[in-house]
Amino acid sequence: MLAIMGAMDEEIELLLADLREREDVTLPGVTVHRGVLDGVPVLLTRGGIGKVNAAMTTTYLLVHGASRVVFTGVAGGVHPELRVGDIVVSTDLVQHDVDVTPLGYEVGTVPGELPAWPADPELRAAAVRAAQAVEGVQVVEGRVASGDQFIASVPGVTRLRETFGAACAEMEGAAVAQVCAKAGVPFVVIRSVSDTADTGADVDYREFMPRVARHAKQVVRGMLADLTAAP
Ligand code: ADE
Prior knowledge:
The chain is α/β, with parallel strands linked by helices. It has helices at residues 9-17, 51-63, 121-132, 154-164, 173-183, 201-212, 215-228, and strands at residues 2-6, 20-27, 30-37, 40-46, 68-77, 87-95, 117-118, 139-146, 166-170, 187-195. Pathway: Amino-acid biosynthesis; L-methionine biosynthesis via salvage pathway; S-methyl-5-thio-alpha-D-ribose 1-phosphate from S-methyl-5'-thioadenosine (hydrolase route): step 1/2. Pfam families: PNP_UDP_1.
């Protein structure tokens, strides 16, 4: 079953409104909504903010039958060409706040894990096609950098660009990726740019987040149509 996850209400509420045959499964800390979206059986949930919430919620989704996971939400643009409203589709994901360098690991590497978790090629391709159908936005495929930090400074953006080659910064994707990779479940992360993660990112985020979070509805629906289309 396809699972669709966002961090905040704004990121899933429009999809939830259209979920048919809805059944709410209440779990410790999270409610997972089962139902049918555009004729496709799905799990839909708001996981909360940050990597811990994301990892916990992803685990619940997998235990409840998710065989593919699509995460959708907003991000701070790090790639210099990204503007508010543009969409990033993950190529791979890193945890920029992990630092075990004193023990000889590269910054961002969790000992015993991949240095970056690659997103699924088929889900990526479907996400790119669906994102390209959103009018007036640029679609960039790139690395998503996740950490338990809201990035709002020029040095912060520069570090993510130079150290990790990141396209955008957010707070959940790599945790979803790590859990899915362990389970061998394909995933992709799709992010609309709400700010450019530099000075004033907090102001832009408050202004644009609710608006750009709405791209999620269009991209997810496009993906559903794409993934279920006859070959
Ligand atoms: N989500 C949206 N904007 C962000 C930023 N600047 N840093 C981290 N997460 C974000």
